[in-house]
Design goal:
Length: 112
């Protein structure tokens, strides 16, 4: 179910309520698998960003950027609060411009 949702978690607006891990994702490169793991843990297992950071031994910014780039959370608005929040999470995180953007596949397409 990759349906839009209006929920929030850890101060971020969610764009969907479930992340579908596609068959064959185990053949992807390390960075892509890491992005899948982050999205799966955040949406499907309902883990907080801080818990994912601890579990995967990642930086806050790396986890938040993966969620942003995979379209799991919405880009924060231009309000001062949202800008401060995203700056706090992403400060000093390595660039993820080389990450693969995974397609969003509705559950209906997978299960008929």
């Amino acid at each position: 179910m990759n349906q839009p949702t209006s929920g929030t978690r850890d101060g971020f607006q969610l764009t969907r309520d479930y992340f579908t891990v596609l068959p064959g994702s185990s053949a992807l490169d390390h960075k892509s698998k890491r992005a899948i793991a982050i999205c799966h843990l955040f949406l499907n297992r309902k883990m907080a960003v801080a818990d994912i950071v601890w579990l995967l031994d990642e930086e806050n910014g790396t986890v938040v950027r993966a969620l942003l780039e995979q379209g799991v959370i919405q880009e924060p608005g231009r309000s001062k609060c949202a800008t401060c929040c995203i700056s706090q999470w992403c400060a000093g995180a390595p660039s993820t411009s080389s990450w693969v953007h995974l397609p969003v596949v509705p559950a209906v397409a997978l299960y008929g």
